[in-house]
From TrEMBL:
Species of origin: Flavobacterium sandaracinum
InterPro entries: SAM-dependent_MTases_sf
Gene3D superfamilies in alphabetical order: Vaccinia Virus protein VP39 (3.40.50.150)
Identification of the protein by name: Class I SAM-dependent methyltransferase
Length: 209
């Protein structure tokens, strides 16, 4: 479903605010393969990820925040009836969470550096997803959760004709994310190891294709 969602949102005004097709594919896979029932997203953009989640056959409690005025102005139109199943507001409205609101999956697609709030909404098995190449966010998370397992994943895809950037960078590799697993248990260590190998191979393949 991620491909259809990417194509749909890439045609909308503000498409520069959407996640890559590779990131959407990864989010769909993570939600389907893990015990994900609650999601908090920093940086909803124009609504691509909550729309994707609404298409999956899972009951998911979704909270999100977006500071961009344009993005906020088009969310209702872009999400349609799905808007009724999500909670979104300025980050200031969530800072009074008392620790009872814990999330299985946290997505960071914008600037955020409040370690105390992040620790408040994460539990021991939370997965944290950082879309794109956000080195400052990755370093912030490394310091906030020093015992977590970290995977950087890249794609072998180049900009498709559906991408809003196709005309200017059709020959560039696009798509990547970093996944933080807070629980260093055996299952997560196995996944971490396999993804390390996969990413290493992709870097080598990028040099020859």
């Amino acid at each position: 479903m991620h491909k259809e969602v990417f194509q749909l949102f890439s045609k909308k005004e503000g498409a520069q605010h959407i996640a890559s097709e590779y990131a959407l594919m990864a989010i769909e896979k993570i939600v389907k393969q893990n015990n994900i029932h609650s999601v908090f997203e920093f940086g909803i953009g124009i609504g691509t990820i909550p729309y994707l989640l609404s298409t999956l056959n899972k009951r998911i409690t979704y909270y999100g925040t977006e500071e961009n005025e344009f993005c906020n102005s088009v969310l209702a139109e872009n999400l349609g009836q799905s808007i009724e199943s999500i909670n979104y507001n300025a980050i200031s409205s969530y800072l009074n969470f008392n620790g009872e609101n814990k999330f299985d999956f946290i997505i960071i697609d914008g600037l955020f550096d409040d370690a105390n709030f992040l620790k408040k909404i994460a539990h021991d098995n939370t997965l944290i997803f950082v879309e794109g190449d956000r080195e400052n966010q990755r370093e912030f998370l490394r310091k906030t959760f020093p015992k977590c397992l970290i995977n950087r994943s890249i794609s072998l895809n180049k900009n498709s004709k559906h991408s809003p950037y196709y005309d200017v960078s059709s020959n560039h590799f696009v798509g990547g994310y970093t996944l933080f697993r807070l629980n260093p248990n055996f299952r997560n260590k196995t996944s971490w190891f396999l993804e390390k190998i996969a990413t290493s191979l992709k870097y080598k393949l990028r040099m020859i294709i």
